[in-house]
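Teaching assistant's notes for section 4

Start the section by putting this record on the projector. Ask students to predict, before seeing the second block, whether Nudix hydrolase domain-containing protein will look compact or extended. Collect guesses on the board.
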Amino acid sequence: MRMVEKVIAYIVRDGRIVVFLHPDDASFDESGLQVPAGTVEPNELPADAVLREAREETGLAGLRIVRYLGAAEYDMRPSQDAVHIRHFFQLAVDGEVPERWEEYERGDGTADPIRFELYWLPLRQVHVVGAGMAAMAARIIAEHQG
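Reveal the predicted structure now:
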């Protein structure tokens, strides 16, 4: 079984978190609602990877790490013979951000760009995010309730 290092970004502002859907690709249907995330590249630190992935998937400038929330394993079987070691980060964004927007991740150019439909979800509803991506959200929810 492969061990794959991943990062998960909780971009939080005013008690809300950035989430997205992939509206054009049926292969993403099982994932449902997600937060920015991705693979740590060889020789890349998780802190660098989370900023890179968050920028690629959201198009947002002015992202910064607030804190590292911890790591957890996520078993991908039976869909993949892999276990993801997920590093969770809380991020903030400076500057103006729309309520809803689209972004396209272009990858390495060998495939069509992937469209992301992004919006702000109330943090207290983050439990609806799929694929175990909300695993560390409780660590920040209490701070933003009020």
